[in-house]
Fold Putative transporter.
Amino acid sequence: MPNGYTAGLGLLALRMPIKRVPSLLVIALFTLAIRVAVMLLGDFVGAYENFLAYMSYWIAPWAAIVVVDYFLRRGHYDSDGMMQWKESAYWYRNGIFWPGIVSFIAGICACILFSNSSTLASPLMTGILHLGDCSFEAGIVVAGLCYYVLAGTYVSKSESRTTRGEIDMPDIRPDLTAAFCSSVKDDHD
């Protein structure tokens, strides 16, 4: 149940005009449909293995884009700006950052092209290269390089507008240390 609740909250994070309980019901119906389909299929383990294999086709490009973006921005993000819509530096063009989308799709295509598994075997890998499954690595390399090339100049321009990404963040460590020390002192008194 916690995973269903989390998925419902994730659906709310898309900022769709839907309340919490209906979003949870959408997730529950989707989950029920998947479970019925797997029961009718009769091979739960095979369906689960295929599900995990297909997940690697999008996880590798997504992870590459996240890591490259982190290094392009030198780890500096405006957390308040991430929560603003239409007025934020992260809004881009109608809420879509096209270099990220293009890089993600290119990475997924590379994963499919370099796949050689029981789930999907591309003709390139089986007929020409005669290699094993290189889909995960190809997805990381293609998506990462594509994002670096396409987003590198845009991210560096936006960083210069926000003083190279140096965001004024309050340091809360002294407050936490003082609170912890006072609670330890109260326990010993």
